[in-house]
Amino acid sequence: MIFEDYLAIKNLIHRYPQCTDKGDFEGVGKLLGDATMGELDHEPAFLGDGAEAFTDIYASVVRKFPERGTPRTRHFIGNVIIEDDGPDKAHAESYVIVFQQTDDLPLQPIIGGTYFDRFAKVDGEWRFTHRTEDMELIGDLSEHLLRDMTA
């Protein structure tokens, strides 16, 4: 893997929270449109059949506040480890902490965990092929989710 590949993958990892925090669920859909998503014990938790399906999934789950059109969150990604899996394939592991503040919720971490991602280089561009989320630190999600995802 050359340095440009490493940077492209790292940018994908960081572009996801940028889109999410801005309430750009269409952008999230484009990023994940070629991927599957799962949780450690329930793989895959859901499949998006293209960008539009992932856009719809996020819009149906994550609350946007009307004054800004965003979820009023900030995702912080750290401890990113990207490893080469051979020609045009890679995987990564990164930590995530999500903070949120609303009129009814003081600024606080609401969720923390680890992303396990897989990537492939297709037509010269890196893409997500799979994301597994292990969200083991759960705080107050009452202002974040439109529906209970634990059921």
Report low-confidence residues grouped into runs of 5 or more: none
Gyration radius over CA? 15 Å
Indicate how many domains the architecture comprises. 1
Helix content: 25-40%
**What is the terminal separation in angstroms?**
40 Å
Q: Name the CATH class.
A: Alpha Beta
Structural class: alpha+beta
Question: Which whole number gives the mean pLDDT?
Answer: 90
Largest sheet, in brief, is:
6 strands, mixed
CATH topology: Nuclear Transport Factor 2, Chain: A
Into which percentage range does the β-strand content fall?
Answer: 35-45%
Count of distinct strands: 6
Count of helical regions:
3
User: Architecture, according to CATH?
Assistant: Roll
Q: Which overall shape is indicated by the principal axes computed on the Cα atoms?
A: globular
Query: What series of H and E elements makes up the topology?
Result: HHEEHEEEE
Enumerate the strands of the largest sheet in spatial order, edge to edge or round the barrel.
Answer: 2-1-6-5-4-3
